[in-house]
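Researcher: Can you fold this with iron/sulfur cluster in place?
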Amino acid sequence: MDARIASAKQALGSDVVILGHHYQRDEVIRFADFCGDSYRLSQVASQTGARYIIFCGVHFMAESADVLSREGQQVILPDLNAGCSMADMANIAEVEACWEQLEQLGIARATLPLTYMNSTAAIKAFCGERGGLVCTSSNAAGAFRWAFAQAQKILFLPDQHLGRNTAFAMGIPMAEMAVWDPFMIYGGNSPERLRSARVILWKGHCSVHQRFLPEHVDRVRRHFPGMQVIVHPECRWEVCRQADAIGSTDRLIKIIADAPRGSSFAVGTEIHLVNRLARQHAPEGKHVISLDESGCLCTTMFRISPQHLCWSLESLLEGEVVNQVTVPVGVKHWARVALDRMLQVQ
Ligand code: SF4
């Protein structure tokens, strides 16, 4: 399989660029031309001359790559079943229903919708059309400050944990945050609660990062004195508040890279990245483990197998584009507006 992938990739040359998300499995990521987080990868791909962008990530990432792509570029997701549990927790019909209820209560006009990068293009477009924007885990605090300069309230989609961690770090008390459950009238809140909330958090989460628990931090503190606990802000607030540092995937990577020899870390993020960091930094005498000893796997990203990558490449050689991800023109426009607005808050 490795030989077939390498041969097809070589034959396609600069016509194809392969993107590998940090959480991707090793057998696939070894073929990536670029490795990184979803936004940076989409940006990089649009700057290449490649006609075909093969995104070894999940569906919303391929959509973002299509939104940011240049004319003539086509985006391929090797397995269309590679979705994201968090992005799937906010569909556009549910979000529109939420907004209608906020309008009925007279709250919508004081609210800006913000969405995390990990959302569908339709949700990004929804935010763009209503004056809001997209943020990443690196710039969520900047996005919140930007939004509060123009509105009294934020509707944050779809990750309640990133929203809560960001708002709390800005000094917003829990009493001024409400959680919107899309399966309940008014999201399960009273109108008064929604009127007094400054941040309305969509009830979504990442099935990987939500598995880390405060008990895991306790275990590390007990068994590995001196080990630093560093976690992604998609983890629960109860875990983040006990951690030594919180950061985006890129920040977690940098913390470990910049640490002196002999440092040790328990990392609260996806297991493929943690294992890779452990291997990479072992020669420097750094000890890196997963915060949860049973490890947390992004099972949907794991669906991108060498077989799927091989099939995508060999199909291109035969003149066929398989599993292309395209965002409709109208959605693409407003999603692009929301993504471009994010650049104001870097
Ligand atoms: S790690 Fe979580 S947020 Fe990231 S792609 Fe997987 S399910 Fe989605």
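Model: Folded with iron/sulfur cluster in place. The two ends are 41 Å apart (CA to CA).
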